[in-house]
Design brief:
Layout (H helix, E strand, L loop, with lengths): L4 H31 L3 H27 L1 H25 L7
Helix pairs in contact: 1-2, 1-3, 2-3
């Protein structure tokens, strides 16, 4: 089986960009929700918009560049998710959450 490295890299770049946008939107939505009266509505709207954007761009990536690009897109998301959760854990050590 031949790997299309160009498509994999293209998917990785798109996945990294969308993951950064996804997690920045999560942080923004959480900040706004915790300061607002309608917390659940804001969190739900934030989740719907972020998930729809992430899946929509993922659909474009797979239809334009194929399955290897989709693999890169998914791998990039999981790497960025790991980085985001690690940064969050470092920012708020156990027992010292703000």
């Amino acid at each position: 089986m031949a790997v299309d490295w160009t498509a994999l890299a293209l998917g990785g770049v798109a996945g990294t960009f969308m993951s950064v946008v996804f997690f920045a939107g999560l942080a923004f939505g959480m900040q706004r929700a915790l300061q607002a009266e309608y917390t659940i509505k804001i969190l739900a709207l934030s989740a719907v918009v972020r998930i729809a954007a992430f899946l929509g761009i993922g659909w474009v990536v797979v239809t334009q560049a194929g399955p290897w690009a989709f693999a890169g897109y998914g791998i990039a998301f999981f790497i960025c998710r790991r980085a985001a959760t690690t940064c969050a854990a470092i920012s708020f050590p156990s027992g010292d959450a703000k």
